[in-house]
Specification:
This protein is of the alpha+beta class. The protein is built from four helices and eight strands.
Length: 135
């Protein structure tokens, strides 16, 4: 087992009793609640669960899509805010005794699953505010 896979396996095992964290970990490690067939249609996998992407709204809420037992993607649901997510991932990293590199890889893997981050940093002197990623 490579070091890159090692933290993923440990995180999945450690999170199995917490449905929310386990669902997030499955998406982070590339094992969402479903897969796609050769035509791109969703086929049930380990369902119900979260879809392949997360969204962060303007208020910092992490939004996930749900995949039901019939394999259909349902509405987006608010899971937690970014502070709670950061704290949960840090606790998980502590629980699996992740190295600094593994911890960094875990957070980088989450960032890669974020389709849209709508949080904005507003500069009062600049009428054209910029949207920046800040996880």
């Amino acid at each position: 087992m490579s070091a890159a896979q090692d933290w993923k396996v440990r995180a999945l095992v450690a999170s199995r009793r917490d449905e929310l964290t386990a669902g997030i970990v499955r998406v982070i490690i590339g094992r969402p609640a479903f897969s796609r067939d050769e035509n791109g249609r969703i086929v049930p996998g380990v369902v119900p669960g979260f879809g392949p992407r997360f969204y962060i709204d303007e208020a910092g809420l992490v939004i996930g899509t749900t995949v039901q037992s019939d394999g259909k993607v349902r509405n987006r649901v608010a899971l937690c805010d970014t502070d709670d997510l950061r704290d949960n991932l840090n606790r998980l990293a502590d629980a699996i005794k992740a190295t600094d590199d593994e911890r960094r890889a875990m957070f980088e893997a989450f960032v890669k699953t974020v389709a849209h981050d709508m949080r904005a940093i507003v500069h009062p002197d600049d009428p054209l505010s910029t949207v920046q990623r800040k996880l």
